[in-house]
Amino acid sequence: MTSVLAPRRRAWTIRKYVPILGTLVLLVIMYGIGIVNYEGFYNTQILLNIFIDNSFLLVVAVGMTFVILTGGIDLSVGSVVALTTMVCATLLNDGWPAPAAMIAVLVMGALLGFLMGCVIHFFEIQPFIVTLAGMFLARGLCYVISTSSISIDAPFWKTTAQERIGVGTFTITPSVVIAGLVVVIAAVVLAWTRFGRTVYAIGGNANSAMLMGLGVGRTRIGVYTISGLCSAIGGLLLSFYMSSGDPLHAIGMELDAIAAVVIGGTLLTGGSGYVLGTVLGITVLGLIQTIITFQGNLSSWWTRIFIGGLLFVFVLLQRAVVRRTP
Amino acid sequence: MTGVLKHRLFWPSAALIVLLLGNLIFTPHFFSIEIRNGQLYGSLIDILRLSAPLILVALGMTLVIATGGIDLSVGSVMAVAGALACLIVVDNPGLSGVLLACVAAVTLALVLGLWNGFLVSVVGLQPIIATLILMVAGRGLAQLITEGQIITVNSPPYRFIGAGYLLTFPFAVIIAAVVVAFTALLTRRTALGMLVESVGGNPRASRLSGIHSRRLIWGVYAFTGVAAGIAGLMATANVSSADGNAVGSLIELNAILAVVIGGTSLAGGRFSIAGTVIGALLIQALDTTIYTTGVPAQTTQLFKAVVVIVICLIQSPAFRRKVLRTVPA
Fold this sequence. Notes:
The structure holds two protein chains of two kinds. Chain A contains 14 helices and four strands. Chain A is mainly alpha-helical. Chain A has a domain at 49-250. In chain A, strand 2 and strand 3 form a beta hairpin. In chain A, helix 2 runs parallel beside helix 13, helix 12 (253-263) crosses helix 13 and helix 13 runs antiparallel to helix 14. Chain A is globular. Chain B is mainly alpha-helical. Chain B has a domain at 40-248 and 264-272. Chain B has 15 helices and six strands. The radius of gyration of chain B is 20 Å and the shape is globular. Chain B starts with a helix and ends in a 5-residue tail after the last helix. Classes of the chains: A mainly alpha, B mainly alpha. At the A-B interface, helix 6, helix 12 and helix 14 of A face helix 6, helix 12, helix 14 and helix 15 of B.
């Protein structure tokens, strides 16, 4: 029995890794192209800068990974990030202490996600349309607070923005450390907890998961809560990076986050993918920007065309992998 | 009376009328329409004129949603078509140049629509993903065409498309009306509309009963591309410039909203063109109302969010069962 099953299982295990391996190969090729063509590209600091400039996107994309793994989607993340920066800036200007303001926005983000999750689960409305409403709602609330940018002068924000942590001869920011922590926690939760396994089960087949007695509702609401919380954390990191709250922050970030998750090899139909893949996806997006900056004569809009092209290739790759599995 | 109340266009129409009446409080002359130099002027006419691009995009979206799909790329297609048209018109501001620009832009939009249709119907991608690709790449493409600049054109014939008047009516409204009438005839006076609904209701059963689902879906996305292309012409002509970033920004969401308000189910399987037109007018009226009352214009998004949630809850069988305790019809 086992001798019959073993080879098939092994084949599936390998196939499972095809998308993420594809991302890895792409990453290596892109990095190689960068090193060969551009002077100074091999500097490790260049690689670290990608994470410094995209730490907030990485956190948001980790939350998105949870949602997409269950087969859902969260379009509200960009707006929640912007709302977080606005609320944070307003609270700090009203004289709130930094820790209280941070806790307040984290609770707010999680609560928004929780509410969306509840509507999706209890009223059986498509995630797409619920989070679309959430996107409008959060963006609209930003404009209710203020239609213009609010600068953040709190000393804690100033020091965090300027703080550099040495890694050997290179430096990273505290934001990168926070993003790294979020990634590690997310990976552990997905791989080794009951909640994580239920997330994969729902993405594989929600009905089967329910019939198996798994807490489908709990978990589904949970992933949107996590996505909201991650968006709030991402918003905090963005407010460190920008030192301001602005209703125009993070417009279109949901697309970048979805792109990173897909390029990172997570199946959009749910059930298969890894947080590590999302990290690779963010690195690919960052490398595209870096290469375009190094190239000099390519304009910034090529970034979007490249990302679109990559999305296409990876979605086709996923399609091929899924079709071949029995 | 209950018959009127139960008609699926009752609530959107009522909302539109209430909203328009509400405007009387802020603008006493809201309903006055006058003819100056043989052209109609008035707030109502403005709402009609400004909603023309949204009506076109929402029209395409209605058919796509009726097949159970969705098209996120309409805003990008608008930007690409508008950018190409303006690029051509800049060098040939005459009538022939404008005609050439329109043909080229609409053809390009058709190609983009065919691309979406190909990904959905032949490759078999989920519609939301297939059109996401073009949504992301299209913005870049539009900026590539304009080279990151805002192309400003100085061409009266081109401006006519968005801001001109023909027989006292705004030209944009006439275009939208013609396209809507054409689509309504094509879908409701032939079997086409029913076939579209059948594909949305159950693609497999439709195919087994001999409907070319694949061809039909492909055609619907192509149509949406063309509609978005014409909308892109209008939007750029109205302001005589093409901005790759701003043209058609967020219109996909407004279009989906208009479709949902109009009573078309997001699950596919049935659609209402009249409902979509009312939905689009409602959204534009909301924008205009917010603008005239002096509330920051961007807060309309808040109202839209509330509208989306309320409408979706009412449409949701689970909500009706659990909260309203009524059996869905």
